[in-house]
Request: fold
Amino acid sequence: MNDRGDTVPVIGIKGGVIVYVGKNETAALENFDRPPSIVDLKGHTAIPGLIDCHNHIVLLGNRPGYHTPLENAYSVADVQSTYRSRANDVPPGSFITTIGGFHPNQFNERRLPTLDELDQAIPDHPVFVSYSFAGPATTNSLGKAFFESLTEPPLVEADGSITSGLNNGKALLALRKQLTFEDRKRGVYDAMAYAVSVGVTTHIDQGGFPATGTPSDGAAHEDLYSMHLPWLSVYDDEAGIIRLRINFLHMDDNLEVPTVQQRLLNTFKFFGNDMLRTGGIGEFITTDYAGGPIFNEAAQRIAKAGWRLEVHSLTGTDFQTQIQAFESINANNSVQDLRWVVAHVPQITPTYLERLKKIGGGVNLSGWQYLAGTGPQAGPPFKDILASGIPAGIGADGMQIAPLNPWIHAYYATTGKNALGQQINPGQQISREELLHLYTRANQWFLGGADEQLLGSLEVGRLGDIVVLNKDYFTVSDEELKEIRSILTVIGGKIVHGDENVGI
Reply:
């Protein structure tokens, strides 16, 4: 993924840094003082470690229960198989959960599994399966018994179904109340392990909504001042296996913008090391996220302090008011070099792309419409965005309403088809090469600072993050894109997933 689009058979990594990229193994060995480990990939495709410029992996690490992603299941039988496998590593009686990141649309049956089907798969573990932000959900017999034992129980139907909204929130709150700090650290390990298994080695996390500690909290709510602590503890233990960049989300609702102001006063931007570093502010800064007096006040302060800012766009008008606000702020406090970002942008137009580009901004794109989106033009307009020349990258937006798995997003971006197989983004498909560029070299723009010259491509002097794929991304069928996984993931020259002697 260098500027020339080279493909080579030999890469050498020393001290975590790439020291050789080329065609001659003998020449590579000249860079080492002692014989290095040699991994023969046996013809498998290797790519740079993927960068996800917009997701919520910190929330994923704080999930209650033994969280188990279902984004790669395509039937109720797949769900049962996934849970049976997971149960082998879970103490009897402990909850197995899936909260967000999938949708019944991806299952052949177009529905959640029932209580009886979950009982057949894992009778010895309670289960809670909920999609999107607030359900609906389903549970099995042990889960139903647990929820019905609560002082304020959610309503669980005979078939295990739990309706969305506050009813689902009651169940989720009860599970969260059981979480210990060690449980959260275990969740961090699980989230990291899953990420490297699908080849995502660097993550820009976008935070969550402030928790209220009530049933109104959904999958995207957490305590914004403690949610990072189990992650920090794992890195303190020198057990971190992904590169994490932390954005700070704020939801101020008055002109004093107190939490944003305190963040600017008391947090160092881009502080840390190449494994863990603070980032920018976003993807929300105020409750009037699309623009308004509170939004303008917070954005002005962020610009004056020289911070990167990211905002969230899902409609046909919010990006307009946001970019207009950026332009107004730029007139007094230049944001040209701050890399302000509008995220998701399913309906952004060429005119506003050009306006954002003029003030040094960029957009990140997501295939979140894959799960539940419908046509006729669900967006984002991948092709138009790339043609505009604006800095652009891709972020999964997992794991509430979208998968974390980058290969599902690759399928959506290159085919325009949703989980039902319907064409919902016609005329906006991009090539596989363009998609991989968005997930690697293009995404370094969103990292900025020292990271920009360290990640995103396999070149001498950059960090040795490599993903070896089970299938050739460039030649498999469209449907097989969703089956791509990593058989070997390397972070800074260290194997963090797979085994150099197994599978290749």
